[in-house]
Structure formats: C-alpha cells, structure tokens
What does this fold into?
Amino acid sequence: MWRIKHLIFSIIFIAFLGIGCIQQSILQITDVKQLEITSPTDEVSRGGSSLCSDIESYLPDTNHLDHRPMRYLRVNVHFMNSSDSTKNYNGARGRKYARELIDEATKNLEQNRKMSLPTGNSTPVYPVRYRYVLSSSQGYEQDSAVYFHYDDDLFSFVSRGKNRNNYSRDVIRTYGVGLDSIINLFIMPHHPDSILSETYDVTSAGIALGSGVKLSGIFETRKSARSFKGLVNHEIGHVLGLRHTWNTNDGCDDTPKNPNCWNTTDDPPCDTMASNNLMDYNAHQHAWSPCQIGMINRAMSRESGRVRKMLVEKWCSLDPEQNILIEDSIVWNGSRDLNGNLTIGPTGSLIIHCRVSMPPESEINVLPGAKLVLRDARLHNACGKEWKGINIHSRGKLAATVLYEGSSILENVPSAESVLPSDVE
Ligand SMILES: [Zn+2]
It folds into this structure.
C-alpha cells in the first residue's frame, strides 16, 4: 500500500515538474567573436565615427538621466594673504567661506535656467550633469582642501598697470596642490596700492590658467559667497573648455554674440540684448546652453583629455545603486562611463555606438526577448579593471538577441571558463 501511494505521489510530482519547468539558459559572452554579425536587414546603417565626436551625442537624455551618470569635479580653495594676515579670510572663517562659495556655485549647477538670448528663443534647458567636491590630493587627505598662504610677493591680484600679474601663473605654480587632478581656486585680494588709485576698479574678476583659477575682489568687497557663484562657475567653465560667447566664436550655435550687457536696462541695446549665459559677463551667469553642456560632457568623456583628470573616478568601482534598466528602444551615441550593472529588459532594445566603460565586476544582462546591438562599440573598464561581460539569457524558445558589427570590441573581460547552460526552474 505504501508503495502504491508513493508511486502515485511520484507521478503527480513528475507531471507537475513537466508543466512547471521551463528551460532557462545563460550564455556568457567575453569576446565579440562569440556573437553573430548584424545582417543587412537589421535596421539602420552604421552611424560612423562622428557619432562619437558630435556635441549632440553628449547631451543628457532627459527621459533617462541615469544613462549619463553625474560627474564630480575635484576643487580646492587657497586664500592668498599678506604676511600680516590682514588681506584675506583666515582659519575657520575662511574654511566656512570656501564651503559657502562651492555650495552657492552648486545651486546654479542644480538649477539651469532658460537662455535669455536670442530674444524669443525656444532653446531647451538641459540639466547640468556635474557637481563640485572639495577634495584634497593624495598625501593630503587630512587637509580640508582649503589652504591659507601668507606671501607678500604673491598674494595679490593686479589687473592693470605696470605690475599687472593677472596672467602670471607664479602663484599657481608655487602653491597649487594636485594640479594634475584638482581645480585649484586662488582667492587673491587686489593689491593695496591698486586699491588706493581712484581709477582702479576694485570689482570681482577672475582668470583661468590651466587647472588653476585666480579670483579677486572677494575679500575686499566683503560680499557674501552668494555674490560670486556666477564668477566661480564662469572660470571653471573655462577650465572645462568653454569660451566667451559675446565676442568670440565659441563653437556653439545656441550662444549668440551680444553686447555683453551687465544687466537689462531701459535703453538699447541692453533692453533686449542682455545675456544670462554662464560665459558672458553679466549679473546672472546662470544659463548653460545645450551646446555648452554637450561640449563639457564630451571633454569629460575623452579618455586622454585634461578635463577628465579633474573628475572623481566613479568608473573605478561598482555602485549597484546606479544599475541601469533599459525597457524601451534606446540608442547610445557618444562615449560614457557607467557606475552600475546594465540590464536590457524583455521589452528593451539598446544600440551602442562608441565607448562605454562598465564598472569593475559589473555585467550586462540581456534578458529573454531583449535586443542589444554593438555598432563599432568599445566596451571596457576605463580604470583598467576587469568586468564580467555580456550574459545572453533565454527561456524556452524565447531568447535574447545580441549582435555586433564593425570594429566592436570587449576589453577588460577575462575569458570565460566555460559556457554555462543551466536548467533552472
Ligand atoms: Zn572669462
């Protein structure tokens, strides 16, 4: 009797298993040669190399901001002072002022504004995707990234006359910390002799020289840090590769030349031609045009570029909080650096052009029904660490599609020990 009962139970169990079990498998790809090449019927033609260099390729996707993770720029602050320490902020007050200066400038990064020029424009407003981090260099970790220097020869800023030194890099060379990887902001008072002259304008001024920025008029005017947020963002804009818009060809079509009005007035031309762009001299300096945002992002994505060296290397570690899930049809142009794993869901389709850095230990999962196409794509880790490659999932007859073409390549992926078919319920 027991045997019959056991037999019946076993048959029911096997029948249940037969209905409930769908074979799933995962194929790990570590080399594009394991993939099929796209066929001529596979939609659109290749985009060509300009997709990797066009400014438009570096605009944020406002529906999927996570597809271009936030960038973080290292900055530090130096207060230049006379030996009697009377010409600039000191100690705790200085450190507080430095933090306020960065926090206030960041507020403008967090809230990009509509361009005021050209009049009646419909230029879209894209989010600015970088922030500042007060940062010490290697070996200086204990520092607050705010420094005080007392030097009667180098403390001051002179923008006119025979002692003019605004283009001199002496102070940057002497006191710069981590100039290869940190934007160094030098707060320099105007020279006391200049201030005595009735014709010398003691206003805020700045100049960017490589990764060093000299800012003046901050202590002498006794204005709050808030008053200088535009100046800080303008000068760092230069460090990031932006040029003035009012009188030069800055490489952008959406930043028209203009009379460089400080503010809107009742009289022409400043009644209608006042700019609020970051890279003009005006009271606001709070609008980044799409082209300027694309230009900065492109510079930050260029592997061998100077600007990229100023970034915190988020691409050197995996942050699962920043995993990306693709659920619709997406095309990635322009290079990018991801911080998390990438999954293409059952309804998703992703075409990748150009360079994509995958974080260490990360993987790309292409789920059953999803599609991934590599078009002259280079998938790697920008830190030179290993990541795990592409997993092609299938369930029963439903498979994922992964194709490649052109010079696509997977780098920094160790070769798979074995292909891993599995039988999972
Ligand atoms: Zn400038």
Summary: Residues 22-53+318-410 form one domain.
